[in-house]
């Protein structure tokens, strides 16, 4: 057997983000915000638990789990946790 401690990427008042190799496991508390930001690579989010308001460019939507969200490269986006949420983040190409 091979066991390795999972690295914590971020741990703050919003919640915690774990490095799960190709994926990041993100737990966020209700009312927290992932600020308006973008990445140079595409991003896929898997909303596994909860409800969010997501803004991608000029589009805004409320979304409940379980859903896959594709965000194009270099596209500004913002996520507001309307409940406690769990997201898997994949910034690798499918």
Key features of this structure:
six-stranded antiparallel sheet, Jelly Rolls, four-stranded antiparallel sheet, 94 residues, mainly beta
List the topology elements.
Elements lengths: L6 E6 L2 E6 L2 E6 L4 E5 L5 E7 L1 E6 L2 E6 L2 E5 L5 E5 L3 E6 L4
Antiparallel strand pairs: 1-2, 2-3, 3-10, 4-9, 5-8, 5-10, 6-7, 6-9
Tell me about this structure.
β1 and β2 (15-20) form a beta hairpin. The model has no long low-confidence stretch (mean pLDDT 91). With 94 residues, this protein is an all-beta fold. The chain contains no helices and 10 strands. The chain has a domain at 26-90: Sandwich (Jelly Rolls). Strands 1-2-3-10-5-8 form a 6-stranded antiparallel sheet, with no helix packed on it. It has a 4-stranded antiparallel sheet with strand order 4-9-6-7, with no helix packed on it. It has strands at 7-12, 15-20, 23-28, 33-37, 43-49, 51-56, 59-64, 67-71, 77-81, 85-90.
Structure, briefly:
The protein has a domain at 26-90: Sandwich (Jelly Rolls), CATH 2.60.120.
Coarse structural class: mainly beta
- Biggest β-sheet: count, sense, barrel? 6 strands, antiparallel
Count the strands?
10
Oligomer designation: single chain
Order of helices and strands: EEEEEEEEEE
- Radius of gyration, whole Å: 13 Å
Percent of residues in beta strands? over 45%
Low-confidence stretches: none
**Share of helix, binned:** under 10%
What's the CATH superfamily of the domain at 26-90, by name?
A: Jelly Rolls
- Assigned CATH class of the domain at 26-90: Mainly Beta
CATH fold-type name of the domain at 26-90: Jelly Rolls
How far the N terminus sits from the C terminus, by CA atoms, comes to 29 Å
What is the CATH architecture term of the domain at 26-90?
Answer: Sandwich
Q: Which overall shape is indicated by the principal axes computed on the Cα atoms?
A: globular
Biggest sheet, spatial arrangement of strands: 1-2-3-10-5-8
How many helical stretches? 0
Average pLDDT reading: 91
């Amino acid at each position: 057997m091979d066991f390795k401690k999972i690295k914590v990427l971020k741990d703050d008042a919003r919640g915690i983000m774990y490095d799960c190799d190709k994926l990041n496991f993100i737990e966020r508390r209700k009312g927290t915000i992932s600020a308006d930001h973008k990445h140079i690579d595409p991003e896929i989010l898997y909303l596994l638990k909860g409800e969010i308001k997501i803004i991608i460019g000029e589009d805004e939507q409320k979304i409940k789990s379980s859903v896959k969200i594709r965000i194009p490269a270099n596209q500004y986006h913002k996520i507001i946790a309307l409940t406690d949420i769990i997201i898997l983040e994949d910034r690798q190409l499918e």
